[in-house]
Amino acid sequence: MSAGSPAQRLAYATPWPAYALAWSADPRPGVRLAIGSCLEQDSNKIHVVEQAEDGTGALELKAAADHPLAPTKLMWRPSCPETGKSEDLLASASTMLQLWKLEEGKLRMAAKMVNTRSSPGNQGMAPVTAFDWSTENTTKIGSSSVDTTCTIWNAETLKIETQLIAHDKAVYDIGFAHQAAHFGSVSADGSLRLFDQRNLEHSTIIYETSPPSPLLRLAWNKLNPNHIATIAMDWPGVILIDIRRPYTAVARLQYRDVCVNSICWAPHSRSHLLAGGSDGCALIWDVADVPALAQQPPAAAEGAQKPPAPASHPPVLAHESGCGELYQVQWPVAQPDFCALGSADKVMMLDSLQRVEKLMEHPDFTLKNPNRLRSVVSMFVGSVNGFHKADGSGYAFMAKMVLEVDKINPQVASRMALAFSTWARLDAQRQALVKEQLAMLRGHQEDLSKDTFEVVSKVSQAA
């Protein structure tokens, strides 16, 4: 790899073992990450990393702060649904929730949210395992704790709105639905439960592992609120839940029998799920094409000895990160063209063109599968940092794909060529790059099918 390659520029080597990772919701161009250390001592660190403004794109340290104990999670405040704006406010968790303000190149602690619910004389709250910041109502933060509780905080008043005993054992994760009143949690008791803050007298057990195994993480799909992904301790892969089918896993998504540490849904797609594996492999599934498991009995049925057999559905991307076990993955709302992968000593980014190129190297990928090909194109077209790369490499990649696919499936290739029809909405530089690729395709008239050449000709005439 050359010294100036994109993959090297979009990477940051941490000076200490790292765990927590968060990508800023700020819609402005550039990358801003918060990274938390994982040191076995009271004093830990948070680093805020941004892209350099010198044109190299390198990630460099912009701010740092001391943190009490290792943060179990970091998260920037989501952008306001009404204005689309985001504040430079960061939340962290350890023995309490803390809010941090990024101002003038410095990260300053803005507030502490300490829960003294426990027995009298307790000086602080039980360790916070995770938290989530509502994207619909950004004043709400929900936290989970080893003391079996979930707590909903008001981030402006710094007061508790709701607190409840959510499970029989430690609660490991919490996640809001798109509607701020609904949230879910997973626990060491092996259950996934849903709650409505407007009526906390009842909760709904949506899924339980059998045999019992702690559920560690959950990710609620904001674009398809029926789907929740979760992972279980020592179970390989990801469990996909449809809340309309309680007690049953819709599918088990596995790859090489590897356990998964972190999961998140694509912010721009209803069906793409990103996972980080214990073997350092980043995986993307398109669950729209996942065959559902046969109907299963409730998880509590006697005699169950194994988790349900996984659906035979390979991921659409399997990327070997080369940076050890992946503890965190991020697919940011502000910049959906990128993914961030976090290991113990490095954070690296993949843009959409790199993801597609890695996808096509996967042994299970074939251009002869139209569903798989459409899944790839849907992730790529419309991407500013992928298809619309300023250097034109995205257009060149798509033109090459049109030529290759046309030999196998002219109907699909002709639809792919329509991606260039958006040229009029582009800046002058990108318009010139599109015209260059259209001219290249016209020069291959003898190699193209009649339908594909007709589409290329019409788009070229408009350009």
CATH superfamily of the largest domain: YVTN repeat-like/Quinoprotein amine dehydrogenase
Overall pLDDT confidence = 84
| Tally of alpha and pi helices | 7
Query: Low-confidence parts lasting 5 or more residues at pLDDT below 50?
Result: 1-9, 118-122, 293-307
* Gross CATH architecture of the largest domain: 7 Propeller
The Cα radius of gyration reads 23 Å
Q: Which oligomeric form is depicted?
A: single chain
Neighbour order of strands in the largest sheet:
1-28-27-26
Q: What fraction of residues sit in β-strands?
A: 35-45%
The percent of residues in helical segments reads 10-25%
Report the sheet with the most strands, covering strand number, pairing sense and barrel closure. Answer: 4 strands, antiparallel
* SSE class: alpha+beta
Broad shape: globular
CATH names the topology of the largest domain as Methylamine Dehydrogenase, Chain H
In total, how many beta strands?
A: 28
Give the domain tally.
2
CATH class of the largest domain: Mainly Beta
Q: What is the CA-CA span between the terminal residues? A: 36 Å
